[in-house]
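Quick review question:
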């Protein structure tokens, strides 16, 4: 397994971890699959109070050593007291004394970020969480969040990033790098859309690259994501086969020529409007998050 530094903490985390959104409704016994992932080096698992999977993660980590556990507090719990209570509930669900990475799931402009961050910093002081992270924060929101912290730093921003959804490349990725925040790429397989017939052209490129290395298209897609500096990822897999495949992606180091080939193909794809590239699941994020983010960035630039 490849490892990357978490922010500027000096601590290393696996470049490929395990996502758990929608595992609650998966038609499979997912705890053994998660455990399989741990055994293959994916000792990093991501959940959220919103997913309803913290108890499953708790079951999977039980008896394991050295698992890096990340969870998230929901935006409607960003008031000071609510953050504290939500953390208490998550610790209970997970069955652990301390959360490694506690993330603000989504920005909430209705609650002052200073109030939320006060609670987050106290949770670190109290030993209930080790690191503070954010998710789905734009550049402007990252600036506000960093300014709201007094004694601790934001170590990561969890954002959607895959071969099909590359919006963060505009500004956010560079900003995270500059400010030593690890990007945790979510939906790295574009929620499974990569394998749909409409994306067959891209799939063929991935298959060709994978064939020479005896790796699958999914593995090449994940390798592309983690080929970016300071980016780790958390694919979700409900079955053991997918989990094994995803762990194996960490063995691939794509060459510059291979990355150019993929990027060359993507050049055409990125011309298409976001909504055309995505199905109803990704539309939720794309129709809400991406335009909001772009609009905010535009306003911010105008103000300067
Ligand atoms: N912070 C946020 O706002 C946010 C938003 C969305 C997601 N996330 C996090 O990111 C994680 C991953 O994102 P995601 O679940 O949206 O999508 P994803 O990981 O891009 O894709 C999951 C889909 O790909 C399939 N898959 C997994 N491994 C595969 C393989 N090796 N070959 C072929 N298909 C494979 C899965 O099938 P099976 O399930 O059948 O294995 C599932 O249908 C989530 O679970 C969650 O932890 C965070």
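Suggested answer, residue by residue:
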């Amino acid at each position: 397994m490849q490892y990357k530094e978490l922010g500027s903490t000096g601590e290393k985390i696996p470049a490929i971890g395990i996502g758990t959104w929608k595992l609650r409704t998966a038609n499979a016994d997912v705890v053994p699959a998660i455990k399989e992932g741990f055994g293959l080096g994916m000792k990093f698992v991501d959940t959220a109070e919103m997913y309803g999977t913290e108890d499953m993660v708790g079951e999977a980590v039980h008896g394991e050593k050295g698992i890096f556990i990340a969870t998230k507090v929901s935006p409607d719990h960003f008031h000071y007291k609510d953050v504290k209570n939500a953390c208490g509930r998550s610790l209970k669900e997970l069955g652990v004394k301390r959360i490694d990475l506690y993330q603000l799931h989504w920005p909430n402009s209705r609650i002052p970020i200073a109030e939320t961050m006060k609670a987050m910093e106290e949770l670190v002081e109290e030993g209930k969480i080790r690191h503070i992270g954010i998710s789905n924060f734009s550049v402007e929101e990252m600036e506000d969040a960093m300014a709201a912290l007094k004694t601790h730093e934001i170590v990561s921003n969890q954002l959607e990033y895959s071969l099909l959804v590359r919006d963060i490349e505009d500004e956010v990725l560079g900003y995270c790098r500059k400010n030593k925040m690890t990007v945790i790429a979510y939906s790295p397989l574009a929620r499974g859309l990569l394998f749909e017939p409409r994306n067959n052209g891209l799939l063929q490129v991935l298959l060709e690259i994978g064939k020479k290395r005896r790796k699958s298209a999914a593995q090449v897609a994940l390798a592309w994501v983690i080929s970016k500096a300071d980016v780790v990822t958390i694919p979700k897999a409900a079955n053991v086969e997918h989990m094994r495949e995803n762990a194996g992606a960490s063995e691939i180091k794509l060459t510059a020529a291979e990355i150019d080939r993929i990027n060359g193909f993507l050049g055409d794809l990125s011309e298409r409007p976001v909504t055309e590239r995505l199905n109803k699941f990704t539309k939720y994020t794309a129709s809400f998050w991406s335009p909001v983010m772009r609009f905010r960035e535009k306003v911010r630039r105008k103000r300067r």
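Why it works: The CA atoms of residues 109 and 141 lie 9 Å apart. The chain has twelve helices and ten strands.
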